[in-house]
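Appendix B, example 12.
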Amino acid sequence: MNTIHQFRAKGLDGGEIDFAAFAGKKILVVNVASECGYTPQYQQLQELYTQFSDRLVVVGFPCNDFGGQEPGDAKEIREFCTSRYGVTFPLAEKIHIKPPHTHPVYRWLTTAAENGHSDSTVSWNFQKYLLDENGRLIAVFPPACEPLDPSILAYLS
């Protein structure tokens, strides 16, 4: 079965995010936006990343597909995330999640035939996908589920 470790994504700052580099850690993939009602979740995502850095990586994918709530360019997104929430976890370049230009990572995350777990539809900004240490999808959390919710923390204890 394929895992998320087969993917690479362009980083917000021009580098590359290689998911294979996260082998041995859980990965929380989140589509993020700067002008969403859920945007304050950036704070808890950073807390989660800091608190569990020995066993978890958070990867944010800025996306403007849901309500046009991420209109900024890479520089504006980075400035917002850093100045408002002190974000240090990896951020990918702004992507599309909705077809027909679905980013390959999200095509894999949302298709059971590819991820071996379940089909899903990204309903809004801040939907969360949790992957185990081997890069396999193990859980999907809706946007309203906060990053420090017990249902997520249960996987990290």
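The two ends are 26 Å apart (CA to CA). The chain has a mean pLDDT of 97.
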